[in-house]
Amino acid sequence: MIFPEPLIHGRLVKRYKRFLADIILDDGQQVTAHCTNSGSMKSCLEDNAEVYISRSPNPNRKLPYTWEMIKINGDWVGINTSHPNKIAFDILQSQWIKVLPAFQHLKREVKYDDSRFDVYGESNGQKWFFEVKNVTLKDGNTARFPDAVTTRGQKHLQTLVKAKSNGYQVAMIYIIQRTDVEAFAPAWDIDPVYSNELVKAINAGVNIFPIQVKVTPTSIEPIKILHLDL
Questions:
Q1: % helix, strand, coil for the chain, step of 5
Q2: Residue 114 pLDDT
Q3: Confidence class of residue 87 from pLDDT cuts 50, 70 and 90?
Q4: Is residue 38 predicted with pLDDT exceeding 90?
Q5: Tally of helices (H runs) and strands (E runs) in the chain
Q6: Which range of residues forms the domain containing residue 74?
Q7: Domain containing 149 — which CATH number?
Q8: 162 and 216 fall within a common domain
Q9: Among 147, 163, 211, 220, which is disulfide-ready with 39 (CB 3.0 to 4.6 Å)?
Q10: Helix (H, G, I), strand (E, B) or coil at 167
Q11: Helix axes 192-203, 151-165, angle to 10 degrees
């Protein structure tokens, strides 16, 4: 994924009310940026840390700026939760995950039952559903998900299992937007219900792809699939 316009550099003053972040730009101007990440953002917040924000071309938008990334321990961590779906779609389109088939058809945001999955794909008669999650939480050398209780995420896992039982191929794609981790695991201490549902989903045949990406001020690109540690 390439950022369409140059990002704007600054430093974090504070994040508050979940969806707001005050940023000091390099010219000394303070702006308020929209924070798309509704989670706790544990392990990716640091006062006065370097950040990059983008500016919307929409002149009518209430907050013209969006917070894109923050530098933690010398590495950029992507915090914009609107990007992983596009990143995953590009990954599937480019056949980057070698164990998956080449898809003749891919579509975003497809309804199934009473849920909506992020990507639907077809390959030689096989029908696939993919759910995509953004991961920023770091615990030691391990990326974890979620960083807050997610009943919505629990439901997605349950619906993937249901789709699998009805003949679909299904997978979870976790987009890990930081490079200072070596493995991926569920956050048992934060959401034990989600963690248990993930184990059940794996046992039911749901494929799991924890994909680490490299975040830079110009692009976000996949690096490797991390080891899954349950």
A1: 15, 45, 40
A2: 87
A3: very high
A4: no
A5: 3, 16
A6: 8-78
A7: 3.40.1350.60
A8: yes
A9: 147
A10: coil
A11: 10
Residue type, 57: P
Q: Which residue reads 């990059």 in tokens? A: 52
Q: Is 1 part of a structural domain of the chain?
A: no
**Count of domains for the chain:** 2
Give, in order, the Cα–Cα distances in Å from 104 to each of 56, 62, 108, 164. 33, 40, 14, 20
Is there a single domain that holds both residue 156 and residue 91?
yes
- Sheet strand arrangement including 126-135: 105-112, 115-123, 126-135, 169-176, 207-215, 220-225
Mean pLDDT, residues 61-75: 95
The token pair at 5 is 């316009």
Domain boundary among 78, 96, 128: 78
The pLDDT value given to residue 228 = 97
The single-letter DSSP state of residue 45 is: -
Q: Which of 212, 202, 213, 219 is nearest to 6 (CA)?
A: 219
Cβ–Cβ < 8 Å for 177, 134: yes
Examine residue 44 and state whether it is found in any structural domain, yes or no: yes
- Whether residue 95 is found in the same domain as residue 164: yes
Apex 29 CA angle, 25 and 31, nearest 5? 80
Tell me the sheet residues that pair with 66.
Answer: 34, 54
For the record, the structure tokens of 97 come out as 């995950």
